[in-house]
Amino acid sequence: MLLKFGFRELRLRRYLGPAAEIAALSRVGSVAWSNGKNLELQLITKRLQAIQKEVKSQVPLNTELLPAFAAAFQQVRAKGATVEVYQEILENARQNQDILAQGQILKAIGLIHINWLSYDKAAPVYEELATLIQENRALFAANSAVNSAVVAGNGAPPQPVTPPTEVDALRQLAYVYQQSKQPLKAIAAREKLASVYLNLQNPSAIPPIKMAIASDYQTIGQINLAAQYYQEAYNLAVPIQQYAQASEALDKLALLYRAQKQWEQTLRIYQMQLLLEERAYNFYGVMNTYDNIGQVYQEMKAYDKALESYQKGLDVAKRLGHRQEYFAKKIQKVNKQLQRTS
Fold first, then answer.
1. DSSP assignment, residue 161?
2. Residue 5 pLDDT
3. Is residue 4 domain-shared with residue 72, that is, in the same domain?
4. Has residue 146 got a pLDDT over 70?
5. d(Cα 322, Cα 35) in Å, to the nearest integer?
6. Range of the domain at 304
7. Are 290 and 313 in contact, with CB atoms under 8 Å apart?
8. pLDDT for the residue numbered 218
9. Residues 216, 232: one domain?
10. How far apart are CA 322 and CA 270, in angstroms?
């Protein structure tokens, strides 16, 4: 019933000029998409394209209709047409040397590509956006508190978009490179992001970035660099009392050494983690660290030390009322291994 009313409205709006008809097509297109009416969506899209062709044939071009076209094409999920219109708006902003408008449109285009999982197309957009902001930091900083009406997304209902920031651009850039399996480019974006946070005097945001860089290096087999960045994450997290982040960094670092069977390094890291968890009064963390230390000693066949670690883990488990049976079984198994070696 709602769609029938909408199509009656479309017939009426056709006589009121392109602006009114585009707005009506946008509204009816949103309803059609919500109701899964694919045929109606196709008809609305074709009509929008016809109006667009008519408008483009006029001299001079009515550029004021471009944002309406972009919003309408988004409502009917016509990604290609939406991006095409935004590119026209972007080119106009470039000709007018409107830096802020360029930033808003680049952000909108980037979000469209991300929401449609077109990461390869999103990357150059965010590269351009990041460069634009870096070259005009003062201008974008002064504008950062102002809302914008530019629409973004993959065709969801239009939403105001906050002005782009260097942090936002670099975070999205790192994300799209990660999703497109380009870890070295993701690392480069994250290094820039860490520098921006440092300049913003926001140290709490840096340890997670160091962790992400370490993970990227680990993915491409650069173990030494991965270890270096996990250590950096720990070193940065402890002074600002990010104990959970610091513990996670040590855990990742220990697993890295453990996979390489570098037992001394692994145990050194776990001992650091044990002290950290005790300092943070995280007894669950203490218990789990004793478990990990016991496992390492077991792998080393140092069963007496494994037994000692598991016993300490059991003592904490009893205090917590958690995992007592687990540690009891571990102790039982190690005792049998000790008997076989004695």
1. B
2. 42
3. yes
4. no
5. 50
6. 282-342
7. yes
8. 95
9. yes
10. 21
DSSP label at residue 164: P
CB 245 within 8 A of CB 211: yes
Q: Is residue 240 part of a domain?
A: yes
Task: Determine the average pLDDT of the residues in 214-239.
Answer: 97
Q: Is 262 exposed, middle or buried (0-12, 13-18, 19+ CB in 10 A)?
A: middle
With beta carbons less than 8 A apart as the criterion, state whether 314 and 285 touch: no
The count of other CB atoms within 10 Å of the CB of residue 162 is: 16
Q: Determine the straight-line distance between the first and last CA of the chain, rounded to whole angstroms.
A: 85
Percent of the chain whose predicted confidence (pLDDT) is above 90: 71
pLDDT at residue 315 in the model: 97
Both tokens of 169, joined, read: 């651009």
Residue 222: phi and psi, rounded to 5, are: -90, 75
Residue type, 162: T
DSSP 3-state of 96: coil
How is residue 130 written in tokens? 């990041």
Reply yes or no on whether the pLDDT at 152 is more than 90: no
Q: Worst-scoring range by mean pLDDT, 97-111, 119-133, 151-165?
A: 151-165
The pair of structure tokens assigned to 284 is 């669950």
Mean of pLDDT values over 147-172: 67
In a domain? residue 100? no
Reported as a pLDDT band with limits 50, 70 and 90, residue 59 is low
The pair of three-digit structure tokens given for residue 72, joined into one six-digit string:
């309408």
The first and second tokens of residue 240, run together, are: 């600002």
* Cα distance between residue 34 and residue 232, in whole Å: 48
